[in-house]
Amino acid sequence: MKESEILQRLNDRLGITGLNAMQQAVTRSFEAGGDMVLLSPTGTGKTVAYLLPVLKAMKGDNGTVQCAIIAPSRELVQQIDGVARALAGGQLKITCCYGGHNVIDEKNSLAATPAIVISTPGRLLDHINRGHIDVDTVRLLVLDEFDKSLELGFHDEMSRILKRMTRLTRRLLTSATAIKDMPDFLRLNRPNYLDFLADDGSKPLGGRLKVWQVQSPEKDKLDTLLRLLGNIADGRTMIFVNYRESVERVYDFLADHHVPATFYHGGLEQIDRERAVALFNNGTFKILVTTDLAARGLDIAEVKNIVHYHLPSSAEVFTHRNGRTARVDASGEAYVITGPGEQLPAYIAIDEEKLLPPDTATSGGLTTAPAMASLHFNAGKKEKISRGDIVGFLLKNSDLAAEEIGSIDLHDHYAIAAVKAEKAQSALQQISTLKIKNKRLKITLIK
Fold first, then answer.
1. Whether 103 contacts 130, CB under 8 Å
2. Which of 166, 384, 391, 403 is the most buried (most CB within 10 A)?
3. pLDDT in tens, 375-395
4. Annotation: CATH topology of 3-195
5. Taking the model in full, what pTM does it have?
6. What confidence score (pLDDT) does residue 360 get?
7. Does domain 204-353 have CATH number 2.40.10.220?
8. Which residues on adjacent β-strands are paired with residue 444?
9. Are domains 204-353 and 372-445 of this chain identical in fold?
10. Residue 275: burial class (beta carbons within 10 Å; 0-12, 13-18, 19+)
């Protein structure tokens, strides 16, 4: 593919007008040849960094899988797939595969061999074993967030996959943390290491993040959390806890106190995980209660506040949680809640203590209703529904103005459209019985 066309789509479709230093270094290293290991913090643009040279290296759709991109989580696979499709502009067949996705849809998509396959390790190995895909032709392999894949126990799956890639000539690994020992199955050949982990001011902890300590008078921190949410700056806020059960306990407490929030953890069905991220991203909810699963791999922008409800288990976890805010040139706040007798680990450096008033009086808007709401459409890409179809349908058939329609999240068999909250109910009444592209869909307001 032509580099000029890829860069133009990077600008037109993703709004990125220039490459940062890390992305430029990746391009130069790729052009020099050989294997590569990229170490760079979360949120610095690693996906764009490697997709640019990867797409440039593709030889069009030639009936073989030329490149495989393996990532540890479903959400990261979806994120990579979205960026890859935006940059490829329909010139390459790209297929993504992950657990929780419809296997039949994936099998049908693989029937016409893609040039690039993007997958989680387990699902890719499953398709290989079923004979749905031949990876013997793969010459370029990208292992994105490789350290996370090892951490999640995908060592054996990746080893088996690489044994099937007998013609592999280049390997590109990305990681947000340094990896001490590279597994032998990688067969790296004197890789070029690009290390951007040094604190050079581009990292969230390099000066733009302020870390506060919030002392809870009780071991149960729920009341302190509620007061904190009423007294911090408005903006997207992620509350990190250490256990799935704690996620739902905190969420239920907030719901009981009429604080709008959503939640996310690995025990949810795939559609519920997708929906939680979409509703957080599009402004329907400003608060996401989550485990550390959401610390990496999710495409979430403009997070203002990080709340460590439970202390992070390690320095790396602390860094990854905080990496969700203060990205690029933005600033952010991190709040560490400590209970009676709870000692801060040495890797947490506090800038200042946050003193809370005894009641829940708000100075920020986190305990108030968000400005956006979401409409759910029970059809998506597989039903030939596009984002443009939904926007046009809303503008034609409701009293919503263009500026009152937010992001449209389009999935295989459903879509979520963000609209101005105060008009959501009336818009639903206006469109609920109408057809879109001659199809009568079930449209509901997500609550």
1. no
2. 391
3. 999 999 999 999 999 999 999
4. Rossmann fold (3.40.50)
5. 0.75
6. 59
7. no
8. 376
9. no
10. buried
